[in-house]
Design goal:
By secondary structure, the protein is of the alpha+beta class. The protein folds into 4 domains: 123 residues, no CATH class; 90 residues, Uridine Diphospho-n-acetylenolpyruvylglucosamine Reductase, domain 2 (2-Layer Sandwich); 121 residues, Uridine Diphospho-n-acetylenolpyruvylglucosamine Reductase, domain 3 (2-Layer Sandwich); 208 residues, Vanillyl-alcohol Oxidase, Chain A, domain 3. It contains 20 helices and 26 strands. The strands form 7 sheets. Strands 19, 20, 21, 22, 23, 24, 25 and 26 form an 8-stranded antiparallel beta sheet that branches. Helix 5 runs antiparallel to helix 7. The protein is globular. It binds flavin-adenine dinucleotide. Flavin-adenine dinucleotide binds next to strand 10, helix 9 and strand 17. This is FAD-binding PCMH-type domain-containing protein.
């Protein structure tokens, strides 16, 4: 069966939008979505009520069994909506699709029920089909995915055999021991049931996995540290290229001051391997975060004040996009440009070559907790300090509640020097009188561990980025905003931290705009991080509402891509123009990124995170 040009069921999205004759309910909501937008779909047993949500619209459908059943899909890639008068029950692959399509595919029924088909190709080349009846009045059929060619079953099976025979790493499928571990992610709500997890051994394995996935029409996800709360390293039914098991080396050339870092290493491994030579680089502030996602999206760390972003310190990358390419200033310079901030859009980075620098082996750092009544004094201190903060300094302020629910102002302080120097530099802050002060000389390896307490693995998470005020810290840190945050978090269904990162940006923004795709005018980041337990979709919806509500108190612009979620990237409100956050993220660099995407990934097989459209 084909939905290609010759199919009588082919239906032009553009034509449909011009006609604009869909009815109420789901199709009305769908009709207001721009091409390529996402819808959230709850798949599960029929007839019990829960939600189908498109942007902010929640429509009742069926009860998902767990949060793993609620996923975001780009509409044109995975979904088929076909109206029909009679609901077809059951599952059964292509026969069901053919049956529904041939009976009702193009007949223009009105007041009919709409059936939602969800399908993906499993490893044996079969489709899984879930049919959900929806009440809707419609006048035209809508086939959102129209170009899928059903792979030949036998061909797909043979491909799998060849793939298994050639692959050097470990392949894990749902029936294998270790499957649950293989799909585990830092955020519980980022877990999706992959069809196959390929623990790649080397770049050739990556190329093999890509070749197989493309032939079998499987969605591809890339996994390094698994810390994308939005599930960007997960795929439902597709193939995960997982670098964390075998491609996690960190080899240091002390002469050249370069670290050769596997795309699946984490920052704890990086710190440990470099500091033993008295060297360090720009690493993430939570040491179990992965190198792959952080380093392709930008990369902020405590050492950014001194050395810039992680991407500013990448000398070479080796990527596999089916072929294996080295990218640096001289070889494939366009790819090298794109990959330093363009995320996972261009291929799988198997190795980063990173600059490392001499680093003292102890630093002054720790947690300093204040009573909220001291907030104005803290803000006054920061107003004075922030414009003159040096490359050795950095303070992260967190507006949150303690474990007993009491409002707190928590500061993580860092001084890249001795305790005496640090206490002198921050004297007015310590003089305000903290409730708790754990700051002291610590082993450098502790620096990227002190914030781990905010990042317990295994909970559900929702992240949203915002920006620091360009005016002064007290514009963000004041009693009025603090009271609003405490009001928004008063029911304590979620634990929410509003994290304001005062890491000096002078070095970061000294890199001219356009040298990488990363924006160079950001004043500093705010991360709003909500965590909760329990799989109920209502909790995700309220986490989103709460987190967005807090973001509204600050400069709520697209800033740092790695602090957004894909819900934010693709957020669409029916009836309104899409904000198109991908373009907003890359601004004037977007057309160049589109050209590079066209060259290296014209078919958008790498389609997670802020997904660039080739042009
Ligand atoms: C607890 C926590 C702390 C954080 N702290 C910081 C911080 O200090 N500084 C900062 O800048 N950001 C920070 N972040 C944000 C972080 O940069 C992103 O969440 C990042 O995506 C995590 O990378 P990962 O490899 O762990 O994620 P994964 O979930 O494995 O991957 C995330 C994305 O990166 C892509 N990707 C992963 N590996 C590769 C690769 N080898 N080649 C190509 N694409 C790849 C994936 O396709 C996916 O789209 C933090 C996030 C968390 C959850």
């Amino acid at each position: 069966m084909s939905y290609g040009p010759s199919s009588r069921h082919r239906f032009s999205w553009k034509k449909r939008r011009k006609v604009g004759s869909v009815g109420t309910g789901v199709l009305a909501a769908l009709s207001s979505l721009p091409e390529g937008a996402s819808a959230r779909i709850a798949a599960g047993p029929m007839r019990t009520r829960t939600y189908f949500s498109i942007g902010d619209i929640l429509l009742p459908i069926c009860k998902p069994r767990s949060s793993a059943d609620v996923q975001t899909y780009p509409l044109r890639r995975t979904c088929i909506y076909i109206p029909q008068a009679q609901v077809v029950h059951g599952t059964g692959g292509r026969n069901v699709i053919q049956h529904a399509a041939s009976h009702h595919g193009h007949s223009g029924l009105s007041s009919a029920r709409t059936t939602y088909f969800w399908r993906y190709l499993d490893l044996e080349g079969r489709y899984e089909v879930i049919i959900l009846p929806l009440e809707s009045s419609i006048s035209r059929p809508l086939i959102v995915y129209r170009s899928l060619r059903v792979a030949d079953d036998i061909e797909t099976r043979d491909n799998l055999k060849t793939f298994r025979a050639e692959f050097k790493g470990d392949l894990i499928t749902p029936d294998d021991e270790g499957y649950d571990v293989s799909i585990h992610r830092w955020a519980h709500n980022a877990i999706k049931r992959a069809g196959i997890v390929a623990y790649v051994k080397d770049p050739e394995d990556v190329a093999r996995a890509i070749k197989y996935a493309v032939a079998a029409k499987l969605d591809i996800a890339i996994h390094s540290g698994g810390h994308s709360p939005a599930g960007n390293s997960s795929t439902k039914g597709g193939l995960v290229i997982d670098l964390s098991r075998f491609i996690n080396h960190v080899n240091v050339d002390t002469e050249k001051k370069l670290a050769y870092v596997g795309g699946g290493a984490n920052w704890g491994m990086f710190d440990a391997a470099t500091i033993k030579h008295g060297l360090a680089g720009v690493a993430g502030t939570v040491h179990h975060t992965g190198v792959g996602g952080l380093a392709t999206g930008g990369g902020y760390g405590w050492l950014s004040a001194r050395h810039g972003l992680t991407i500013d310190n990448v000398a070479t990358v080796v990527t596999a996009d089916g072929s294996i390419l080295k990218a640096n200033d001289k070889e494939n310079p366009d790819l090298f440009w794109g990959i330093r901030g363009g995320g996972c859009n261009f291929g799988v980075v198997t190795e980063f070559v990173m600059k490392v620098y001499p680093q003292r082996t102890t630093v002054f750092c720790g947690i300093v907790v204040f009573h909220p009544e001291k907030l104005d004094k803290i803000a006054a201190y920061l107003d004075d300090w922030w414009p003159r903060a040096t490359e050795n300094e950095g303070i992260v302020v967190i507006l949150t509640r303690g474990p007993d629910g009491s409002p707190n102002v928590v500061c993580f302080v860092n001084y890249n020097g001795t305790e005496a120097e640090g206490r002198a530099a921050y004297k007015p802050l310590f003089d305000i009188g903290p409730l708790v002060d754990t700051a002291k000389d610590m082993d450098y390896l502790q620096l990227n561990v002190i914030t781990n307490s905010l990042a317990e693995p295994g909970l559900n998470y929702y992240f949203k980025g915002a920006l620091l005020s360009r005016d002064k810290p007290s514009a963000d840190l004041n009693q009025e905003k603090f009271a609003k945050i405490m009001d928004l978090t008063k029911d304590r269904a979620h634990t929410t931290a509003c994290v304001l990162e005062y890491i000096p940006h002078t070095k970061i923004n000294s890199v001219p705009e356009g040298v990488t795709p990363f924006r160079r005018d950001l004043p500093g980041n705010i991360l709003i991080n909500s965590q909760w337990k329990g799989d109920e979709p209502e909790k995700l919806a309220s986490a989103r509402e709460l987190t967005h509500g807090i973001a509204e108190l600050f400069i709520n612009e697209v800033g740092y891509g790695n602090y957004g979620t894909d819900q934010d990237a693709m957020l669409t409100r029916p009836g309104q123009t899409s904000p198109d956050k991908v373009k907003a993220l890359f601004r004037e660099n977007y057309p160049r990124l589109q050209t590079i995407k066209k060259k290296y990934d014209p078919n958008m097989i790498f389609n997670k995170w802020y997904n660039i459209t080739p042009a």
